[in-house]
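Is this the right way to post structure tokens for a design question? Let me know if I should format differently. Anyway, here goes:
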């Protein structure tokens, strides 16, 4: 399985990257595949110029194209951003603005953030979770926020392990072989179930009753 980590940290070393690495290690350790999990880290600070150019010319550079391909092909995704002005960083948002809108549909995603104060912890719920819901990703229930005072304190390791376990479960479940192929009759019934009936036709049917 392929686990891709997107870190939007800007400094070196970065608390954002530290949290991302801990989440990745915990997730890899919780999957049934164990050592067979391939972890790839995408550092957005290295892609800042190419992301900006993509907005102006519509084409990703070589490094950005490779990062977008890795995210698209991942079996699971960990995304971590520092908090800027009570939300995700502009670089973080810009990366997910240039990715194909359908690339994350159905993909398990663990969201995380770092900040200087615990007051920013709700950024996970009012900013990150809506963003990835819009992209139709499958977001794990437990999100992980790490304030400066959380490092070395009780609670953070437990949240990391809980979130990692949830992501590993989703990755393993979505990577299992599919069941028997659907019959032609079942496929037709499924298509009929989701056939879109124009609103005017629905009103006409109601009027005829």
């Amino acid at each position: 399985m392929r686990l891709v980590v997107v870190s939007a940290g800007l400094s070196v070393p970065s608390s954002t990257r530290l949290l991302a690495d801990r989440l990745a290690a915990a997730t890899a350790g919780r999957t049934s595949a164990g050592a067979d999990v391939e972890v790839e880290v995408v550092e957005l600070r290295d892609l800042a110029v190419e992301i900006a150019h993509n907005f102006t010319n519509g084409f990703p550079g070589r490094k950005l194209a490779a990062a977008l391909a890795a995210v698209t092909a991942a079996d699971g995704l960990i995304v971590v951003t520092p908090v800027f002005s009570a939300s995700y960083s502009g670089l973080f948002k810009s990366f997910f603005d240039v990715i194909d809108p359908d690339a994350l549909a159905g993909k398990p995603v663990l969201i995380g953030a770092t900040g200087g104060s615990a007051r920013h912890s709700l950024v996970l719920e009012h900013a990150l979770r809506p963003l990835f819901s819009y992209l139709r990703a499958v977001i794990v229930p437990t999100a992980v926020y790490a304030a400066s005072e959380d490092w070395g304190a009780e609670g953070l390791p437990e949240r990391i392990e809980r979130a990692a376990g949830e992501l590993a479960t989703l990755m393993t479940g979505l990577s299992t072989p599919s069941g028997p192929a659907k019959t032609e009759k079942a496929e037709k019934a499924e298509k009929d179930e989701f056939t879109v009936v124009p609103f005017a036709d629905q009103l006409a049917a109601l009027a005829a009753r």
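Format looks fine. Someone answered above. Worth noting: The beta strands are 2-7, 38-43, 76-84, 87-88, 108-115, 138-139, 144-147. The chain is about 45% helix and 20% strand.
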